[in-house]
Design brief:
By secondary structure, this protein is an alpha+beta fold. The chain has helices at 2-13, 22-32, 142-145, 176-189, 210-219, 264-277, 293-296, 324-342; strands at residues 38-42, 48-52, 62-67, 72-78, 84-89, 101-104, 107-112, 134-136, 154-157, 162-164, 170-173, 197-202, 223-231, 251-253, 281-282, 304-312, 320-323.
Length: 344
């Protein structure tokens, strides 16, 4: 397990917004390039597709997927005063940006906004829109800023990997969605597997699950397992179904989200397997969000698809929080699903 968290730490601290995922892909390739049981290709969109040779060939082709991109910002304009205007890449609530430090081409920047004492009182409690925000990199003019920053450059959260809690069993970092899924898959690639498997490290999930379309049409699997992080709202002031799922509750198996109605028999099979094997599992109590499953299940000639997620607080922020035990439950459930789907 510790190797997985080492991979997750390295991967989450890399920067790779949608369509700028090459640093993440290069890290994974470097780890598997000498693994004799692995062969890989990089398609035209930037998806990394890896075939892993197992002890035997399954009756059904299984694809395991995780996306490599993270939410972030992109430089859209530079003002005459040297401030950087940005546009979001993926779903970001503006509230998580205010006063944060970010990185632009290795430079530190601060997300700024008009001071409260200069804001109209009627709007002082409003959540600012992206157009109201800017990044201050300490440049005195447009000409000075342009020495370091160009339109289209990536802006990413400046965040540290921190383990905390009584036994250091909680982890805080940016981009755990979905570098954690990538870390789990990387660990599987470096271990002997019972069956041949195909792993897809896909691009551009946060802007419409675009890489998953190309990857699935190439692989043409019978079954797909999407490894993800999903929103946990087990926090103060939230109760009932609005908590969605909880840390310490184990692997999250969805029956429906904002992009997919999962086949009922697959959902029931996953939950039954968890019970039989003593694996903690839970479901989402709100139908919201989405992931690569929305594209995978309707690609090729149709794919039997299931999403298995790690519950994560403060998703799409600089401070995503997960619990280690939930990761172990996800890994154990995915391994059981592979054995079941292989000859189902």
């Amino acid at each position: 397990m510790e190797r997985i968290f080492e991979f997750a730490r390295d991967l989450s601290l890399l920067d790779g917004i949608s369509s700028r995922e090459e640093t993440v892909r290069n890290y994974i390739v470097d780890k598997i390039k000498d693994e004799k049981s692995c062969s890989y290709l990089i398609d035209n969109l930037g998806n990394l597709i890896v075939d892993k040779k197992g002890r035997k060939s399954p009756e059904n082709k299984i694809m395991i997927d995780a996306h490599t991109d993270e939410v972030g910002l992109i430089v859209s304009y530079i003002t005459s005063e040297g401030f950087i205007k940005v546009h979001n890449v993926g779903g970001i609530n503006e509230k998580v940006l205010l006063g944060r430090t970010v990185k632009v081409n290795g430079l530190t920047g601060v997300v700024g906004i008009k001071p409260v004492h200069l804001t109209d009182k009627s709007k002082s409690k409003d959540i600012p829109e992206m157009d109201d925000l800017y990044v201050d990199i300490g440049a005195a003019s447009k000409e000075e800023a342009e020495k370091y920053v160009s339109l289209g450059d990536s802006v990413t959260f400046d965040s540290e990997w921190v383990q905390f809690g009584e036994n250091n069993d909680y982890i805080k970092s940016k981009a755990l969605d979905d570098r954690l899924g990538c870390a789990i898959m990387l660990d599987m690639l470096l271990k002997e597997q019972e069956y041949d498997l195909t792993f897809t490290f896909t691009v551009q999930e946060e802007v419409g699950c675009r890489g998953a379309i190309a990857a699935t049409n190439r692989v043409k699997p019978d079954y797909a397992i999407v490894l993800e992080c999903t929103t946990a709202s087990d926090i103060i002031g939230v109760s009932g179904e609005k908590r969605v799922c909880s840390l310490s509750g184990g692997a999250v198996v969805s029956f429906m989200d904002g992009g997919t109605v999962y086949q009922k028999n697959l959902y029931k099979k996953a939950m039954a397997l968890a019970r039989e094997r003593g694996i903690k599992a839970q479901t989402k109590t709100m139908i919201a969000g989405g992931n690569n499953a929305r594209q995978i299940h309707q690609s090729s000639c149709g794919v039997k698809t299931l999403a298995v997620s790690v519950p994560c607080r403060y998703l799409h922020s600089p401070s995503c929080v997960i619990k280690k035990s939930d990761v172990e439950d996800v890994i154990n459930l995915v391994n059981e699903l592979v054995l079941t789907f292989a000859d189902d």
